[in-house]
Every structure is written in structure tokens, then in C-alpha cells.
Amino acid sequence: MERTINSHIQIPRFILEYFTDAKNSLHQLNVKTLRISLGRARTMNTKKGYYSNETEKLMNILSETPFAKRLAEIVQIDFGSSVYELPESFEKDVKSFFALLAARGPYMYDMIKKNSLYLHLFPIKDEEKPDFSVREIMSNEHHKVFDGYSVVLAENRSDISFVLPMCAFYSVQLWKKDALVFPATPNYAFILLSNEAIHHMQNNDIRKILLLDTESFVRTFNLAAFRQQKQYNYHDYLGYGWVVSNNRQTLEYLTEDIKKNSSNSK
After folding, report:
1. Each residue's pLDDT tens digit, 73-92
2. CA of residue 144 relative to chain centroid, distance
3. Please, are residues 95 and 143 in contact by the beta-carbon 8 Å criterion?
């Protein structure tokens, strides 16, 4: 299989571009050193040939393009109210993209191998493992892994942007249930919320938007993103140790919160 593309390992380029500033720069925080620097969406977390050209095409057709179109629709809408109707096809596209992001994670192959006699008997080459993981997830009805969850759209109306961890998503507690958050832009995040708690976000069977209009709430989300990134030690794997933002000030606030929480835990 040809491997001529400089692949984005876990976060596709079109997502990273939402987190660039007016000069097309990413502001990135190293989770190990807490140093803030600049990067580019084109080269952030990439490796030539990490995925084969065929796998890149598969990801683009089956998940990236459908989700990119849905996201482009979202960012153009002026949500005057706190409710919106989410078509079933939209929810499927979001869950499919969540599954793809998980498939692109560095530990997915090892997780698949644990339950595969075939891979124990016939191990594959290291360079083929990322392709195998993606194809294994995408060849099944991958969105069904999230059948116990519903998609909620969160709109950030505060003065602080959402940050994006390179591990893609992170967990928070909402109504005493774990929720999986993927910040797709500085102002919008998709959340997989347990069906046991989705009634909190319903209004006569129409899904409500989770409006985040307080700075403290968004800072709590951003701190959770940092902790998730650091927890899985992504800084030890292919340079994954970053959270990114479209502005430096958001990362400076995050650094303050990290240091504050670190001193309080001592």
C-alpha cells in the first residue's frame, strides 16, 4: 500500500484549522512543561505514511467528510433559543466521527488485539497497526458502540475558548453521569451523554443546547481536557502532549488553573 501522505495521526486537519488564529497559527500548551508555543494545523501531530493512502481515503469518505459538512452547518447557525432539532442522520454522523477519533488513538490496536485470537497467532507489522485499527472500527457499524448515549451540542458563549486536547476528547461529570466531550471548535463541543441523563436536555422531545455562558464552567472543561491529555501519557507517544487553542490568553488561564489545582492537592 502506498504511504505518501503526511498523515494527521488523531485529529484531522479540518478540525485543527478551527483552532487557528487570524494568522493561521495554533497556540499550543505542552502538557509536560506547560510551555506555550505556536504551531500549524498543516503539520501539527503528523507523520508521513502513518496511514496508507487507501486508509486516508476510507476515513475521508466514511466519516471525515460527513462530519465536516455537519460542523460547517452548525457554525453558521445563530442559535437564538436553547433548543434545536437533531436529525437522526446527524447523530449517526457525530457518533461515527467519535468512533473514528477513538480508532486513531495510539492504544486502539492493543485493545483490539486483547480480544483477537487471530492477531495473537498472526501478528502484523508495526506500520500496519494504525491502518488495521481504523479499518476494524470503520468496517463494523461503529456508531453503535455509543448506543447507550445521545448527542448533545454545547455552545460556549463565554469569553474563554474551548481548548482541544490531541487525544480528541475527555470526560466530565454531568448530572452525576460520565459524559464524553469533543470540542470541535473554540465555541462548539459535541457531548455524548448517557441516555439515563438525557432527560435533563429534553424539552417536549426536542433536544436542548447546553449553553455555557460562564467563564468558570468553560475553565473547568478546559482543565478536564488537560488532565485527560496528561493522564494517558500522550507526551510519550509521537509528540501527543499538547492541548491547543486559537488564542494564547485561554492557555494562560488554563496554566493558572493547572498550577492552582496542583498546589491545592499538595
Report:
1. 888 887 776 666 667 778 88
2. 18
3. yes
